[in-house]
Amino acid sequence: MAEEADYLLGFVQKSHGIKGELLVSLTSPDIEFEKRIETIWLGDNSDHLHPWNVESFHLRGSSAFLKLNDVNSREEADYLKGIKIFVPKSSISRGNPIQLIGFKVKELKTHSLLGEIVDIDLNSAQQRLIIETNDGELTVPFVDEFIHSIDFDEQVVEVTVMDGMEL
Predict the structure, then answer these.
(1) Backbone angles phi, psi at 78, to 5 degrees
(2) What is the DSSP code (8-state) at residue 162?
(3) Which of 91, 112, 135 is the last residue of a domain?
(4) Least crowded by CB within 10 Å, which of 19, 22, 39, 95?
(5) What does the pLDDT look like over 89-133, one tens digit per residue?
(6) 99: how many CB neighbours lie within 10 A of its CB?
(7) 2 is a domain residue
(8) Cα-Cα-Cα-Cα dihedral sign, residues 21, 29, 91, 98
(9) In what order do the strands lie in the sheet with 113-121?
(10) Do 103 and 140 share a structural domain?
(11) pTM score
């Protein structure tokens, strides 16, 4: 995989209009970016990606409209239908919990390592971190009551685990 393309943004749902714009279905409906996306990577899997220059990218809820520099017709856009889109995880806003995938998780009181964040549940009423532990998965709500601190430099999240939280 391209070193810079470490986050699956979504996939091309279909073409949009006659000038080669693409409708993209996003993996997360709440994504925000630190800066303008200039390059994306397209491919069927993370081992075979090709970079593309972005002309425009506009978020619309759980979808986005993407215009690539070298795609200029509906026919060219139709050819990309179903293909996966990757971006650098570093381009995602630090306020967005998706940025935390891959971070280690420590329990606040004991400072013990619980595991690693493997996914974010954004589809429920409350965003939740999915943490892979030695005993299974632990789900922690992404709210101040449970998230004590986030260290982006060390890539560690300190959480409070309440009695009754299940693996």
Answers:
(1) -60, -30
(2) P
(3) 91
(4) 95
(5) 878 876 778 888 899 999 988 889 999 999 888 766 678 889 999
(6) 23
(7) no
(8) negative
(9) 136-141, 128-133, 113-121, 104-107, 156-159, 147-151
(10) yes
(11) 0.67
